[in-house]
Specification:
The chain has twelve helices and no strands. The chain is globular, with a radius of gyration of 22 Å. It has one domain: Biosynthetic peptidoglycan transglycosylase-like (Penicillin binding protein transpeptidase fold), CATH 1.10.3810. The protein has 244 residues and is mostly helical.
Length: 244
């Protein structure tokens, strides 16, 4: 007669705890998902996404995709959301990485937001870090991805981004920092502009040229890591620093 192998009590306890954690995570996700959906519906009931987009496009000096340098576009995508052209508004890999970072730091450190989610935040919601707002961004991002091209979404992002020193949008930042149209900036200047919105109060060249220069290095290394440029090209660009 075969003996039935008993499961170790510690292993059973661990499995139960894991199951409880999964159930708890699902319950929390559902709770904030419902709250986020309500927040999103409330936002668009006041002013629709289409109306908000029209308002942004109607602003003076709205910069379209073709009026930006190719290097700037590649730099922004590389450092902010390198799967932007392929995802549907949400990047599961980035979300998982951000979740792990937040758990490790025991704080809401990283959000894993895509460019589309950042547009939603800028257009529809406050900048306050709340779980329901993150959920609301997801609903908004999916809707925006269905109705606008990637080029149009990129335009909305860079025309509403905060570049520090009172500059909102790529046109104001390019003219304000360098006295040039967005299409005319050098690769070094483009990398600097791509890096500022991550933390405008730190990386604005008007506030700290040293930190702005460090951020350029980070942007260029991101471009190298994602095979946009080579290490040699990055080093050549770094040698051509801005002359204020």
């Amino acid at each position: 007669m075969r003996r039935v192998k008993k499961r170790h009590p510690v292993r059973k306890l661990i499995l139960k705890l894991l199951l409880m954690c999964v159930c708890l995570a699902a319950a929390v996700g559902a709770f904030f998902g419902v709250k986020g959906y309500r927040m999103y519906q409330d936002a668009i009931s006041q002013t629709s996404i289409e109306e908000r987009v029209d308002e942004i496009r109607a602003k003076e000096n709205f910069t379209v995709y073709s009026e930006m340098s190719d290097f700037y576009i590649e730099a922004v995508i590389s450092v902010e959301d390198h799967r932007f052209m392929s995802h549907s508004g949400i990047d599961p890999i980035a979300v998982a990485r951000a979740a792990w970072t937040d758990i490790r730091e025991m704080s809401y450190v990283e959000g894993g937001s895509t460019i589309t989610q950042q547009i939603a935040k800028n257009m529809l919601f406050t900048q306050e870090k709340r779980m329901e707002r993150k959920a609301a961004e997801v609903f908004a991002a999916y809707d925006m991805e269905k109705n606008y091209t990637k080029e149009e979404l990129f335009e909305l992002y860079v025309n509403t981004a905060n570049f520090g020193s009172g500059y909102e949008g790529i046109y104001a930042a390019s003219m304000g920092y360098f006295g040039k149209l967005p299409k005319e900036v050098t690769d070094y200047e483009a990398a600097m502009l791509a890096g500022v919105p991550n933390a405008p109060s730190m990386y604005s060249p008007d506030i700290s040229r040293e930190l702005a220069a460090r951020r350029v290095v980070m942007v260029l290394q991101s471009m190298v890591r994602h095979h946009v440029i080579t290490q040699e090209e990055a080093e050549q660009i770094q040698q051509k620093k801005c002359k204020w």
